[in-house]
Amino acid sequence: MNGYLVLKGLHVSAVALSGIFFLLRGVWMLRGSALLQHSWVRITPHVVDTVLLAAALGLLVRLQLNPFATPWLGAKLIALAGYIVFGSFALKRGRTRRTRSIALLAALGLFAYMIGTALTRDPFFFLPG
Ligand code: HEM
Questions:
Q1: Residue 38 CA to ligand 1 centre (angstroms)
Q2: Which residues, other chains included, contact 99 with Cβ-Cβ below 8 Å and sequence gap of 6+?
Q3: Cα gap 114→98, rounded to integer Å
Q4: CB distance 90 to 23 below 8 Å
Q5: 129 in helix, strand or coil?
Q6: How confident is the model at residue 129 (pLDDT cuts 50, 70, 90)?
Q7: What is the model's pLDDT at position 20?
Q8: What pLDDT, on a 0 to 100 scale, did the predictor assign at position 123?
């Protein structure tokens, strides 16, 4: 198997795991579950996200892509920054349940946007026409 396929397989698998983990932690947050405090629940997402980003970097190098000159990649990076901020408000920083719920929805929306723009290579894939 070539390096590109390995990196892409790693990236996409880590994307799936990362999304599942984030959703799970969001549900646990809404339910006030003590599971959120378990050390494996706190550490595993960091490991998965490190693999996700390392594979993304590998893909950039392998495909010789400049994210600042490739609109769908630039959009993904901006969305990633928003996802991290909203994600941290959803799981940690949000003071009220309402703030955390809104932040969770925004983070999930940005995650879906990143998948959409990656699959279509179009930052405006959601616009008709
Ligand atoms: C949570 C964040 C991310 C998600 C949800 C995500 C999602 C995806 C998905 C679903 C694909 C596969 C697209 C396909 O099947 O062709 C993909 C590919 C890719 N992603 Fe990401 N990604 C994320 C972060 C990043 C970041 C930060 C970068 C680097 C700026 C990046 C760079 C790439 C590249 C270069 C490809 C391969 C494109 C190709 O094969 O031509 N991704 N991403």
A1: 29
A2: 89
A3: 25
A4: no
A5: coil
A6: confident
A7: 97
A8: 97
What is the 41 CA–ligand 1 centroid distance (Å)?
24
- Check residue 32 and give left, alpha or beta (phi > 0: left; psi -120 to 50: alpha): left
pLDDT tens, 57-83?
A: 999 999 999 999 999 999 999 999 999
Q: Where are the alpha helices (DSSP H) in the chain?
A: 3-31, 39-63, 71-88, 97-120
Q: What angle do CA 81, 86, 88 make, to 5 degrees?
A: 100
Any ligand 1 atom below 6 A from CB of 17: no
Both tokens assigned to 35: 């599971």
Cβ of 80 less than 6 Å from ligand 1? yes
CA 79 to chain centroid: 9
